Amino acid sequence: MPSGGIQRVLVLGGGSAGFIAALTLKRRLPQLEVTVLRSPDIGVIGVGEGTTVAFPRHLFDQLKLKRKQFYEEAQPTWKQGLRFLWGRRPEFYYPFATEYEQQFPELSRNLGFYCADDPSYTGLVSAAMAHGKAFALRKDGHPEIHNFHAFHIENKKLVAWLENVSRNLGVEVREGTARVEAGPGGIAALVTEKGVRVTADLYVDASGFRSELLGRALAEPFLSYDDTLFCDRAVIGGWERKDEPIKPYTLAETMDAGWCWQIEHESWINRGYVYSSKFISDEAARQEFLTKNPKVSNEPRVVKFRTGRYARNWVGNVVGIGNAVGFVEPLEATSLQVICVESITLADSLADSLCAPTPTLIELYNRFNAQAWDDIRDFLAIHYKFNTRLDTPFWRACRADVALHGAEAMVNFYRENGPSVLCRQLLHASNSFGAHGYLSLLVGQDVPHAKKYEATSKELESWRARLKSWALEAQRAMDVKQCLEAIRKPGMKWD
Ligand SMILES: Cc1cc2nc3c(=O)[nH]c(=O)nc-3n(C[C@H](O)[C@H](O)[C@H](O)COP(=O)(O)OP(=O)(O)OC[C@H]3O[C@@H](n4cnc5c(N)ncnc54)[C@H](O)[C@@H]3O)c2cc1C
Fold first, then answer.
1. Is the pTM higher than 0.70?
2. Measured from the CA of 327, which atom of ligand 1 is nearest?
């Protein structure tokens, strides 16, 4: 690190990772000179269209970016969680609102013990999802956009909005395909194909799967997650929306050798079959995808990936962000969340160290962000281990062989104690899924446990009354289309 502290940051890559990193740094540390160098020839990955709640919380609550500009330019729709066609039940919802952690005064146990037979509604947000609704209607005719929402956004529109915001904040954007000049601290300079040499005090590697700096130049070891996550490809296609309602969730549907997402854009429906090439060929996956989705109107494209992460995010004068440092398949659409976390923890580390980070701070950064990646692998493990819907070679292998890693203690606890919220004590404080996430998936998939609870008739009566009032409230709510129309009307209060 330079003796005068870090003043100039060069971000390699202009995808969502590069721009989220650049604008986060510039917003939190306006004195930094931040440049994005991106290759027009390589372009961006062009997939990554669902978010979690971490995305709006980072950009709007923490960084205070303008929501109005975001809605106008990125044109998102809202997602309140996932609907799973998964496990032995016909379906179940995983809402982002922490419904499984609720406790009601008239019920002696926590919620999971009452909804075990039918977990369709576990609160207002899942009831809204089940009714195809987004938000409650306010008196002024606008939607009450609660804090448990995420988005569906087309990747290219997202990147265009991020670039605009970054430029407005003072980030410089340069074009060029870079090669690396190595130096004592790691990287000495990046040199474009035209011979322009660009230097900085800190290099952010946001070069996507190419991982030009962390992986290629510094040869940081890659730790595979393939003992847990067997999928390594996706075939993607979609069609123009006609009269299909815009669903307020991402659909995750079990397929022969993986699963298929449905992501809802205002005028486009995006489907993708994530599969394991060890269990199905590209052509057979394409056929299964097209049979499942006969409306697909474009030529489906195949994207290959490997799941895992580099051992460290921050090595010498390089910090990796996004696909350049790790990738976990998109079952919970978590990559943008990780990018936000990696970016804000980098900005906090620089701010806290007065831009002169110490070795212990860098080690802490690495430990924290590695844990964030591993948490996602662990959470996804229970999706694969307990999905009993299909009896295909892929799903049999998942049930037999998926390694649970950090989720093992949670599963053991659940098997002995049922859906008790006390399981939250097994998770560390920054685990983004929490007890609610684990219980949604364990109860939703009907994983057997030893503590079935027989509710009293009084308890059952009040539970049914709650279900009824959630359903009534959900029916009165606005659907996504109505919400989109309403926010475009004058008088919408944004911030
Ligand atoms: C099938 C699939 C589905 C996904 N779904 C989701 C999802 O639903 N939600 C989610 O959050 N994420 C999802 N992702 C992950 C998603 O790709 C990332 O969230 C996100 O797009 C970040 O990409 P990136 O910026 O790291 O990489 P990219 O978009 O690949 O950007 C890399 C940038 O680096 C530049 N670059 C590379 N090499 C050089 C060089 N030598 N010189 C100059 N520039 C260079 C490129 O031009 C580009 O600008 C999905 C990924 C896959 C594969």
1. yes
2. 15
